[in-house]
């Protein structure tokens, strides 16, 4: 039962990282930019949630009304800049790393390097948990799983079922051909980058909900989130979510049976094995890659 | 860009490092400069070692922290935990770096599906694994951290900081010597070729796997040694302090800033970043990283080739700026490091100012470039076929999934022949060329050169058997000049030569195809016809006995076709046997001593041109699709 509890709690916790990975995976898979600045946006989302929830009567979850549009616009703006300078996949890594450094440092300069956390009055979710039979789950992770599920269903429906989604997939496979068939890549790219930015706001809010935040958290996410993107398959929305749950569950079980320090060992060994044997991700799409 | 007398600055750097501590004793400048310079030297070693793999070959690595960390922990465990002497531990740390590199390389570079991003991500995962291993293994770290005593070193080295300075200097010089040595030899050129087009590099005789392994081993060696020195200096080691993102990200910033394609680029980048950080340390920490991030963004967008590329283009501007600042320093006094930082800043601004138009070498190309090949002395008679079989393909079949591209095709090439390989689109001509050149392996069947089977031979070794090919759509190395494209082929061909000899020999091949005037131009600046001629020059530079020309005349206008035909004929007369894949029957009839016709992956007919062209099966295969081609 302990193993089950650890696995389930871990999987729910993993859904937060799946949310972080979702935006990265989308822009990488469909727009061919590896946007490290995404981590900066998530961090900014966390701090904006903290700031707004502390200084206004909005309440932490409702801060999304402000942060999601703000970060959505910011994400779209960054993408327009990438487009404007015709940044390639590799140089996007460098440029967005520069942006990440700047964003983290800006957060650092405004809110200091110290730990920040929302007051218990402001954030009643952090300490609450819900019991299902013998199993108990912290409320923030349940919220993360809920938001993650909704967002994944929404995005995968758009990508798989709508004209915009088909255009997006065409664009992800061959930009020039897609443009030749009249697909307006600017608009679609901007919209997608905006959605990714808004998802960063949600992930940031959920991270702030869990407890303490520091500027360095952005760098700590990088490894785990990339692991999820790779395991899920780049650009594979549903796969990313599964991979987040899987990574979380594995981490939880390993931490219980062994020690928490062993979790990265197992998770990143899985990443290496996946890259060697399943470079397309653990969850290949039914229709095949092309 | 990759020529010149780099050993002079290299020797000057080594000498300065060797004598600096003594100069300090004479002039009494503060020891803090020595600390600052040790930092520059540490980052020079780290960034240069990263650049040898990732800058030269284009395999972008996030794993620098892994090599660095293995060096740090090897020394820390041997010295701090087991009380070993520092210098054997230092050497073992370098060895550990090499071993880790070879393990990663063996796994990664053997992958069929390896692409740049996959390699980058693979190397991203390694430091996390190593960090976890260090944390959970009590005999390595166990989460306690390791405290290192000040090592017992000979008194000759003076104060500890001076000892560290010399050690860091030795490793940095080693790194620069390796980086420079590679640029001046085939080791570096193999990597440049891999950077631009790995498959073509392999097809020109470059043993790509071996050279990638050498590059990653060099990366591991230097990073491991340098990590070990920094462990001695720091004195306290923990997994968090070792396997963080600082090392992998700083080396990338420094190399991009300095210039990834220059041996000294990462060192220049290290100089800039360390000086900048030092000057911003007094109260401006909050800005230091913002400036660094902005510098990275702006550089990648506006000067992706780095500062070195600009320095090399206008060295005198830079020299005069530095001289001016030195003069100002002599007049006003003040903190030399500040002046130096100002000098660096001005030099960077001057270097990055838009340079009018970057050296318009293209403009020097004369109008009548093709003239030299027109006059074609001697008769049109090809050398007689001697009857000795050079190349023999037997019952070749190749499937792609369920599609049969070739079904049981057999053909042979005799010495001195020029076989025209014709057939409608999709008949399997290019597949046959890919099989003969080793780019693809047959599903079944055999290919022999001089009776020796080559089916399981790596493509680069097939080049050494004397087979070279061209590509239907030219695939030049775009970051190298036209001449250097040929140089690579000579360096790795059947009769390999050194860089200087190859540069001289390259003229002969450029002249053979009539590109002598365009040697200094990059492939982006020449037209399709010239690129196809470059393909031929590059293939000939491997000194083949058999040349496979895959539609070398596709997309040309009539004048260009005549010129290309003359070049092919000249190559044939020089004694090379040729397989010519071609659509234009007029051309094939003119050149070929024998014709092989493919249709839907099968051998339809073969024989001398006149007979084959009257063959009813051939006529019907061609009618409609290709009959009109005969008329133009």
Give the biggest beta sheet of chain A: 2 strands, antiparallel
Main structural class of chain B? alpha/beta
Q: Kindly report how far apart the N and C termini of chain B lie.
A: 45 Å
Helix content of chain A: over 70%
Strand content of chain B: 5-15%
Q: How is the quaternary structure best described?
A: heterodimer
Radius of gyration of chain B: 29 Å
Strand proportion of chain A, as a percent range, falls in under 5%
User: What value does the average pLDDT of chain B take?
Assistant: 86
- How much helical structure, as a percent, in the residues of chain B? 55-70%
Please state how the strands of the largest beta sheet of chain B are arranged side by side. 8-9-10-5-11-12
Q: Strand count, sense and closure of the main sheet of chain B?
A: 6 strands, mixed
Q: Enumerate the strands of the largest sheet of chain A in spatial order, edge to edge or round the barrel.
A: 1-2
Q: Count of DSSP E strands of chain A?
A: 2
- The best one-word shape of chain A is globular
- The computed structural class of chain A is mainly alpha
Query: What is the count of DSSP helices of chain A, taking H or I runs of 4+ residues?
Result: 11
Note the total helix count of chain B: 26
Extended strand count of chain B: 12
Radius of gyration of chain A: 19 Å
Low-pLDDT ranges of chain A: none
Features:
heterodimer; A: 290 residues; mainly alpha; 73% helix; globular; B: 632 residues; alpha/beta; four-stranded antiparallel β-sheet; 12 strands; elongated
């Amino acid at each position: 039962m302990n193993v089950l509890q650890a696995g389930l709690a871990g999987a729910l916790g993993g859904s937060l990282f799946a949310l972080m990975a979702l935006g990265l995976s989308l822009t990488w898979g469909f727009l061919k930019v590896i946007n490290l600045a995404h981590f900066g946006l998530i961090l900014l989302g966390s701090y904006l949630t903290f700031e707004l929830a502390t200084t206004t009567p909005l309440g932490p979850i409702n801060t999304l009304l402000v942060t999601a549009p703000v970060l959505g616009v910011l994400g779209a703006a960054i993408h327009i800049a990438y487009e404007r300078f015709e940044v390639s996949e590799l140089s996007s890594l460098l440029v967005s790393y520069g942006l990440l450094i700047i964003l983290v440092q800006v957060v650092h300069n405004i809110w200091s390097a110290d730990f920040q956390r929302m007051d218990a009055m402001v954030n009643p979710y952090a300490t609450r948990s819900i019991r299902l039979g013998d199993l108990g789950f912290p409320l923030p992770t349940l919220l993360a799983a809920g938001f993650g599920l909704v967002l994944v269903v929404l995005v995968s429906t758009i990508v798989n079922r709508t004209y915009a989604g088909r255009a997006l997939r065409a664009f992800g496979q061959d930009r020039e051909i897609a443009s030749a068939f009249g697909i307006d890549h600017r608009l679609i790219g901007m919209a997608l980058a905006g959605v990714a930015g808004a998802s960063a706001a949600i992930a940031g809010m959920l991270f702030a909900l869990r407890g303490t935040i520091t500027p360095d958290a952005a760098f700590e996410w990088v490894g785990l989130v990339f692991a999820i993107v790779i395991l899920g398959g780049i650009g594979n929305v549903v796969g990313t979510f599964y991979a987040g749950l899987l990574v979380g569950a594995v981490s939880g079980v390993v931490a219980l049976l062994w020690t928490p320090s062993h979790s990265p060992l197992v998770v990143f060994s899985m990443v290496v094995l996946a890259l060697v044997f399943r470079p397309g991700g653990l969850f290949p799409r039914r229709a095949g890659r092309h | 860009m990759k020529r010149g007398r780099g050993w002079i600055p290299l020797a000057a750097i080594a000498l300065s490092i060797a004598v600096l501590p003594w100069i300090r004793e004479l002039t009494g400048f503060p020891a803090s400069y020595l600390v600052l310079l040790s930092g520059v030297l540490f980052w020079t070693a780290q960034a240069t070692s990263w650049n040898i793999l990732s800058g030269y070959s284009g395999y972008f690595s996030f794993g620098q922290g892994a090599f660095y960390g293995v060096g740090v922990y090897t020394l820390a465990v041997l010295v701090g935990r087991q009380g070993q002497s520092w210098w054997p531990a230092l050497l073992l740390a370098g060895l550990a770096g090499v071993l880790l590199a070879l393990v990663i390389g063996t796994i990664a570079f053997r992958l069929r599906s390896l692409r740049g991003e996959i390699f980058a991500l693979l190397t991203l995962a390694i430091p996390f694994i190593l960090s976890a291993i260090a944390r959970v293994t009590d005999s390595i770290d166990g989460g306690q951290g390791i405290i290192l005593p000040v090592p017992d070193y000979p008194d000759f080295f003076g104060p500890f900081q001076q000892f560290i300075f010399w050690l860091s200097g030795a490793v940095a010089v080693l790194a620069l010597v390796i980086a420079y040595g590679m640029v001046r030899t085939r080791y570096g050129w193999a990597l440049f070729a891999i950077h631009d087009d790995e498959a073509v590099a392999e097809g020109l005789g470059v043993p790509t796997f071996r050279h990638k392994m050498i590059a990653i081993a060099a990366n591991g060696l230097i990073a491991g040694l340098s990590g070990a020195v920094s462990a001695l200096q720091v004195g306290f080691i923990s997994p968090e302090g070792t396997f963080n993102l600082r090392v992998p990200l700083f080396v990338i910033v420094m190399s991009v800033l300095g210039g990834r394609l220059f041996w000294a680029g990462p060192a220049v980048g290290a100089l800039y970043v360390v000086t900048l950080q030092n000057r911003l340390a007094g109260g401006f920490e909050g800005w230091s990283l913002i400036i660094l991030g902005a510098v990275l963004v702006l550089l990648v967008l506006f000067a992706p080739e780095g500062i070195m590329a600009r320095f090399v283009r206008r060295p005198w501007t830079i020299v005069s700026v530095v001289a001016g600042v030195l003069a100002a320093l002599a007049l006003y006094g003040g903190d030399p490091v500040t002046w130096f930082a100002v000098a660096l800043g001005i030099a960077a601004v001057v270097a990055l100012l838009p340079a009018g138009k970057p050296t318009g070498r293209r403009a020097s190309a004369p109008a009548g470039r093709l003239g030299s090949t027109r006059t074609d002395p001697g008769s049109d008679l090809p050398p007689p076929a001697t009857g000795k079989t050079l190349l023999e393909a037997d019952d070749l079949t190749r499937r792609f999934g369920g599609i049969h591209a070739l079904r049981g095709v057999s053909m042979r090439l005799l010495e001195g022949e020029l076989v025209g390989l014709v057939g409608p689109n999709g008949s399997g001509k290019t597949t046959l060329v890919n099989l003969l050149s080793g780019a693809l392996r047959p599903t079944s069947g055999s290919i022999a050169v001089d009776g020796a089977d080559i089916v399981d031979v790596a493509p680069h070794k097939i080049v050494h058997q004397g087979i070279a090919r061209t590509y239907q759509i030219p695939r030049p190395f775009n970051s190298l000049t036209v001449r250097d494209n040929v140089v690579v082929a000579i360096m790795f061909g059947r009769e390999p030569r050194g860089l200087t000899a190859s540069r001289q020999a390259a003229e002969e091949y450029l002249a053979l195809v009539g590109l002598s005037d365009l040697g200094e131009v990059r492939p982006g600046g020449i037209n399709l016809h010239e690129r196809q001629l470059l393909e031929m020059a590059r293939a000939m530079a491997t000194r083949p006995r058999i040349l496979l020309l895959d539609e070398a005349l596709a997309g040309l206008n009539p004048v260009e076709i005549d010129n290309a035909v003359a070049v092919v004929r000249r190559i044939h007369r020089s004694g090379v046997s040729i397989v010519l894949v071609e659509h234009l029957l007029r051309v094939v009839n003119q050149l070929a001593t024998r014709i092989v016709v493919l249709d839907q992956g099968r051998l339809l007919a073969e024989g001398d041109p006149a007979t084959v062209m009257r063959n009813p099966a051939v006529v019907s295969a061609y009618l409609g699709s290709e009959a009109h081609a005969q008329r133009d």
